[in-house]
């Protein structure tokens, strides 16, 4: 990573500053976000040249640390609270003989980094550091550190190299697969139990989920009601749907469609009759697979409300349930199981194109390596802190068995 000063604003009326910092990676490519930030800072008359230098130097040190860790300055957007805490641990454990940087200096460093990432949020750059926090301070004791806020003080635990992790928050980011049978048990309308199974096995977004047809047409003609004798030989089924303005395909899991055919389709027929009664004899559209108990076509809001209701039940093992959490859990466990398969769990990051391609196909992401890298680092943090179950056999079979036992 390189930090250069240019004379880009020297002869303009915007600012009297002689130089503007610009961030370049090791291949001398401009690192866009940090460079735009520096230019915007330089254009503010309230920022002296010395202040500009201090701000950009702090960011440059952080980006260089990323390079040294092998996670690349160009990927600065892959930053969350754990990355920041790892950086704090690095600063603490690499102080010079005079104890520099001091605790106060480290606090200033983190405040500057937060200022940059807050700016990035406002400019539309996606990253993973929670910008809803109102105020940030750094609490340092010995060789450990934690970031505290006015609105949120969380339990953390020390790991490996002096970095820290948010134990409580990590547990609340996604649905643990061992909790899915209990969640299904608490659902009071079976349609949402079917939706849980689909979300768990496909990582679909809500708007994608509700494009699943009762009777597919065209390329989706394979999504239909099969006879029982056909289900034993059912293969993956093409599902094409609109996603963020583009057409996307996945291979819909045959075990999920099989349970839909055997268990949900007969129930949908009953609910379709209720829909017909409520709508002057009109049948529900064939492109709507999911109907509520009174025959209403299920909407994303109805799904969110039902999940919220389950999460509020004191018997629920998860504090929060959202459709996105199932998608996040899908990717997390997908990477966990693949890393275990390749004997790479808990080890230093190495790009695996096979896993990356398969994961991106399910998630619908286009950026090569980015999604995979994020989840590898996430899984390893979870793994080191005992937040994931590492099983020889996936619990999908147990989930299906619990589902059928409860409802059929």
Describe this structure in words.
- Residues 170-392 form the Tyr recombinase domain.
- It comes from Cytobacillus solani.
- With 408 residues, the chain is mainly alpha-helical.
- The chain has a domain at 2-170.
- The protein has helices at residues 32-42, 49-69, 81-93, 103-122, 167-171, 180-186, 190-202, 206-209, 228-231, 254-278, 300-312, 323-341, 353-363, 370-384, 396-407; strands at residues 2-6, 20-24, 136-141, 144-149, 156-159, 163-166, 237-243, 246-252.
- Helix 2 (49-69) packs across helix 4 (103-122).
- 32% of the residues are buried.
Can you lay out the helices and strands and say which pair or pack?
Elements: E1 2-6, E2 20-24, H1 32-42, H2 49-69, H3 81-93, H4 103-122, E3 136-141, E4 144-149, E5 156-159, E6 163-166, H5 167-171, H6 180-186, H7 190-202, H8 206-209, H9 228-231, E7 237-243, E8 246-252, H10 254-278, H11 300-312, H12 323-341, H13 353-363, H14 370-384, H15 396-407
Antiparallel strand pairs: 1-2, 3-4, 5-6, 7-8
Helix pairs in contact: 1-2, 2-4, 6-15, 7-12, 12-13, 12-14
